[in-house]
Each structure stands twice: as structure tokens, then as C-alpha cells.
């Protein structure tokens, strides 16, 4: 056992050179690998109580399970979210935008933004008094009408729909108001307004509140194909009788409405390593679907708005990265980065490890063979006849070497070479003793 431990000690000491080499390679890996992704991000949502804000709160709760902090940035809506994403400060890294807003961004700015896909449908709802007969948008001209808050996606769609019908809100400054959300709903319920438009999921408390009011009715966009042809970022969706509220039977008959998509857009400040995490959390939020969205239908890469992120495309094709399926995000993301450098590291280590055996043998034998240098020098002096003047000092030096050699330790497998050196050294010493005797007798 003692011999085995001694051999192991010798082997470790002989290969100590590996320590700085491996330390250097490990340091290079940590230096070259990309830093870990941040564990927080800021997302622009929308007004309090709106569909964007509700989705943001649900997404935040799901991400918190992975230790990720999603900071919600309230705004007036899609247009302000777009402006926040384009700001140089980079305070906001991702935001919810209404499909169609991409048309308002010029090419240089559009290159700064990427889409992670659509998150859910956000239908366009037009409520008007139940005692009125509203068949076309032209019928709104004589009504007190709210067409959406300035800077909101609701106003953007309203203006586009009205424009396709040859109507400009600016032509009706006394009766049409640029308000929306809770403010418009309150005015509508208190009959300060006759009609108003709202954009949001069918489950939105605001939409549910209006749908439950028997004095209000939903407008039927029965010419959906005509609108889709002119506004391709919208699509028609059927809303069955009673879908919004069975008790109030709202709507009172099958109708059609138009819907853009709530899309998740990121800017250059967003860390792409977070893409799969965000999309998977969004999928968990939407896993049960909505009144209008089938379970598992969102998120998805359609419709195309801004250029879809490569990481998002990869997620839609393959799902979560392998390690993220079994490990917490923080650990999996770190492992992903080190695995990338593992192949080149192995390419360096493989020949290095192959060299360990020959280098080890060379280092052990070097402990033995270095003694032969002096023995060969003595042989030359004997042959040249130049040893006679310092014969005694050479004998003393060789005997001292013999004592030192007794302390040399080598693995058991190299003992034969060590014993050969002992024999050769003794042979040279005896040969010098013979020469000294011959010198004294003469």
C-alpha cells in the first residue's frame, strides 16, 4: 500500500505542469464565453386594467417562478410602446404592439426591432345604443362618438377603418372625442356618449362590463372581406350569439368583428437568450386559450410584422432548448454557453492528454538519465588520459553521487532502470579505484 501511495505521489508531482495549463484553458473559457443573460427586463404594456396590462401581470407571475423579474412599464398603448422601444435610452427592452403599427416605422428604425410573434387576438368592439339602428360606419356621423385615446392602438384602427369609408374624425370636432378605455366606457354608460370603440380580449373586464349592459349593442362588421383586403393586418372573426355574456345574451345574434394581433416586439437592448424563456412563459399564460382563441394557439409567428427573431423562429420550430426543459433557466443558460466552447476545448485537451504518457515517461527517466552525463565525461577523460591529476576528487564525487542516488524515488515500473544506474555508477567507481592503484604501484 505504501508503495502504491508513493507511486501516485511521484506521478502527481511529475504532472504538476498540467495545473497551470488547465488553469489557463479554464480561464480562457470563462473569458471567451458570453456573459449570462440578465434576470430582469422591462416590458411596456398599456393603461391600467387594459388587455396589455392584464397579460403583463400574468406573464410576470409565470416568469417569477424561474426567478426572472419582469418589470412592467405602463403606457397609453401601442403607439407609445413603439416610441419607447425606439428610444436610445434602452429603458424598455420589449413591449406589446398592435399588428399594423409596423407600417408607421421607416426602414432604418424597423431594423432596430424584431418580433417574437403574436400573443393573442385583440378584437375591435364598437358599442352603440340598443335603440339605434347602426348598419354602416356612416351612421355614426350624427352620434357622440369616442374613437380612442391619442397615441393608442385603438385610435389607430378606428382612424384606418373610418378612412377606408371616407370618414375623417377631424371633420367632427364637436361630437367626436379622442378618448378611450375606462374614461370612454364611463361616459358611454352614463350616456354622455352615444358610441365608443374599444380594443381588447373578450374576457377584458371593461368589455365584459359593456357587454352586460342591456342598453348597449355590438356593431356587426359584416363586410369583413372588404376590410381584410384593404387592411391586411386585420382579420375577420365570428362572434357567436351570447359569446361575451350568456346571461345578457351579448351579442344578441351572431356578428363579425375585426381583430389585429397583440404582438411581442423587442429592440436591440433585449438579450436574445431570453427569447425562449419569454415565449414559453407566454405559452403557459395562453395555454387554456380565451373565448376567441383556441387552447395552445398562441403565441405563434403569424402574422409577420417586424422581422421575426431567429431565436423565436427556433423556438416555434423546436420548442425550448434541451437543457431548459430539465433545468432552471439560469443554470441551463450558463450550461448552453459553456457547451458551445466545450468542443474547441476538447480539441485542445485531446492531444494534450495523449501527450501525458510520453511526457510522464520522459520526466521519470530524466531523473535517472541525467546522472549518465557525468559518467560519460569520466569515460572520455579515461580514454584521453586526462583524469590522473584529479583522480581522488572524482572518486569522492562519484561516491557522493552514489549516496544521492540512493535517495532518488521512481515508480516501481522504472526500478530496473534505476538499478542499472546503480550498477553502472559502481562500475565506474571501481574502475577509478583500479586506476588509482595502478598509479600508486607505478
Question: Can you give a write-up of this model?
Answer:
The protein is built from 15 helices and twelve strands. The protein is rod-shaped, with a radius of gyration of 41 Å. Helix 3 (51-64) packs across helix 10 (275-285). The chain has a five-stranded mixed sheet with strand order 2-1-3-12-4, with helices on both faces. A five-stranded mixed sheet has the order 7-6-8-5-9. The longest helix has 41 residues, at 329-369. The relative contact order is 0.12. Strand 6, helix 6 and strand 7 form a beta-alpha-beta unit. It has 442 residues and is an alpha/beta fold.
In short:
The chain has 15 helices and 12 strands. The protein has 442 residues and is of the alpha/beta class.
Strand order across the largest sheet: 2-1-3-12-4
Order of helices and strands: HHEHEHEHEEEHEHEHEHEEEHHHHHH
Tell me the span between the first and last alpha carbons.
55 Å
Please count the helical segments. Answer: 15
Q: Identify the overall geometry.
A: rod-shaped
Helix content: 40-55%
Q: Main beta sheet: strand number and arrangement? A: 5 strands, mixed
Report mean pLDDT, rounded to a whole number.
84
Judged by helices, strands and strand pairing, the structural class is: alpha/beta
Low-confidence stretches: 3-7
Amino acid at each position: 500500500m505504501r508503495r502504491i501511495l508513493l507511486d501516485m505521489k511521484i506521478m502527481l508531482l511529475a504532472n504538476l505542469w498540467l495545473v497551470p495549463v488547465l488553469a489557463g484553458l479554464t480561464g480562457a473559457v470563462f473569458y471567451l464565453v458570453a456573459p449570462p443573460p440578465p434576470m430582469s427586463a422591462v416590458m411596456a404594456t398599456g393603461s391600467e386594467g387594459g388587455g396589455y396590462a392584464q397579460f403583463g401581470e400574468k406573464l410576470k407571475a409565470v416568469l417569477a417562478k424561474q426567478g426572472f423579474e419582469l418589470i412592467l412599464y405602463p403606457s397609453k398603448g401601442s403607439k407609445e410602446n413603439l416610441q419607447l422601444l425606439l428610444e436610445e435610452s434602452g429603458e424598455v427592452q420589449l413591449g406589446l404592439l398592435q399588428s399594423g403599427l409596423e407600417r408607421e416605422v421607416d426602414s432604418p428604425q424597423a431594423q432596430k426591432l424584431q418580433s417574437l410573434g403574436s400573443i393573442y387576438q385583440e378584437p375591435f368592439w364598437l358599442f352603440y345604443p340598443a335603440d339605434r339602428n347602426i348598419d354602416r360606419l356612416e351612421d355614426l356621423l350624427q352620434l357622440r362618438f369616442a374613437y380612442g385615446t391619442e397615441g393608442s392602438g385603438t385610435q389607430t384602427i378606428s382612424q384606418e377603418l373610418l378612412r377606408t369609408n371616407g370618414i375623417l374624425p377631424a371633420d367632427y370636432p364637436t361630437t367626436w372625442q379622442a378618448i378611450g378605455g375606462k374614461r370612454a366606457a364611463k361616459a358611454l354608460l352614463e350616456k354622455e356618449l352615444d358610441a365608443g370603440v374599444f380594443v381588447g380580449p373578450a374576457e377584458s373586464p371593461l368589455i365584459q362590463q359593456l357587454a352586460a349592459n342591456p342598453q348597449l349593442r355590438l356593431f356587426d362588421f359584416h363586410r369583413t372581406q372588404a376590410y381584410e383586403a384593404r387592411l391586411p393586418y386585420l382579420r375577420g372573426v365570428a362572434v357567436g350569439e351570447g359569446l361575451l355574456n350568456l346571461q345578457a345574451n351579448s351579442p344578441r345574434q351572431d356578428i363579425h368583428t375585426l381583430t389585429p394581433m397583440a404582438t411581442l416586439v423587442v429592440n436591440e437592448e433585449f438579450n436574445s437568450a431570453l427569447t425562449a424563456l419569454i415565449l414559453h412563459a407566454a405559452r403557459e399564460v395562453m395555454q387554456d386559450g380565451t373565448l376567441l382563441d383556441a387552447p395552445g394557439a398562441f403565441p405563434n409567428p403569424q402574422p409577420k410584422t417586424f422581422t421575426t427573431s431567429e431565436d423565436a423562429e427556433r423556438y416555434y420550430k423546436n420548442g425550448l432548448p434541451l437543457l431548459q426543459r430539465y433545468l432552471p433557466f439560469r443554470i441551463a443558460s450558463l450550461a448552453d454557453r459553456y457547451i458551445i466552447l466545450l468542443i474547441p476545448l476538447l480539441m485542445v485537451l485531446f492531444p494534450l492528454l495523449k501527450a501525458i504518457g510520453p511526457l510522464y515517461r520522459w520526466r521519470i527517466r530524466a531523473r535517472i538519465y541525467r546522472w549518465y552525463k557525468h559518467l560519460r565525461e569520466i569515460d572520455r577523460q579515461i580514454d584521453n588520459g586526462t583524469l590522473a591529476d584529479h583522480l581522488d576528487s572524482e572518486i569522492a564525487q562519484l561516491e557522493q553521487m552514489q549516496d544521492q542516488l540512493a535517495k532518488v524515488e521512481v515508480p516501481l515500473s522504472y526500478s530496473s532502470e534505476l538499478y542499472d544506474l546503480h550498477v553502472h555508477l559502481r562500475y565506474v567507481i571501481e574502475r577509478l579505484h583500479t586506476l588509482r592503484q595502478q598509479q600508486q604501484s607505478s
